[in-house]
Structure prediction request, 333 residues.
Amino acid sequence: WVFCILVPDWILMLEAARRALDAIQPTVVLMASEMGAASRAFTIEAARRGIPTVALQHGSIFPGHSDYTHKGVTTNPRVVGVTVPQVTCVWGQGQVEALTHRGSYPPDSVVATGPWRYDEVLRTLVHDPERARQLLQVPPGKKVVLLATSGQNFPDYARAVFEALSLRSDVFLLVKCHWGDSPDVIRQASLEFGSPFAVVDRLLDALIAADVVLTPWSTVAGEALLVRKPVILINFQQLAVFASKYTEVEICHEVHNAEELTKTLCLLLNHPDRETSWAPAMEAFIERYFGTLDGQASERVVAVIEECFRRRRADNSIPAGGQTKSRIEVPRG
Prediction:
């Protein structure tokens, strides 16, 4: 499988990247999913041409993440190892340490800029649950549970959620499906247990409307914490280090089966004020893993890109694919 399918695919990706870069001749290559095979091909071929590459964190990065904890990480494609972009822009100091201390990223290749993807959200956020529930047409007087799916044994935990909610008449379920999860699974579970639900596209409104958020390992867990919502992490497969950084500081609940899910969901719905004791730990977690929340992270990312371009233009002595001579500094907003 590796030599008959994967290796030929990788060779084709490298060739496609070579042709694209030679045709376009970009100043900088920016990518938001740099650990995929196609993105890795662009990273390698761009570095061979001396074109700076910048990666943007697009999801959760914790110590032990299998995509980021390779040995022999390098920004130089002429060195045997795992080639990564010249600079990786992460959200907070927690990710910097995960990549450079627990992982083997060169220290000068990782910069904390804040969560660029939330800039517009932070500028326009109106934390009004009632308004959000009206927009999403939630029946009046109902408590709201949001299920944000993310693969990982989706049919099993979807069925367990509907079974748990079938015991209550005071709850309305909102479902935000991951792009790879079919809403048909939700409809089938609803027919089996009779629980009312609505599939939504407006994730932020759904998060604000929710009393409790359910999700597997997903960035939605962090997004729920940003709007200070209690989270249940669904880990029916009992994956190692699945939710450790959330649960070790006691800001989320982790459940491993349908019985635990039902018990924990009822606890949070019946006693919403019990989460107030988690506030200090939640704020510390947000500061560590989301960094500066001032709505200007995108500007700091742009500053990194401009610095990469400036160094490429001003210092032709850097070998193609070589590491920068000193750490790229990000202006603080």
Summary: Residues 2-24 form the longest helix (23 residues). The radius of gyration is 22 Å. Confidence is low (pLDDT under 50) at residues 317-326.
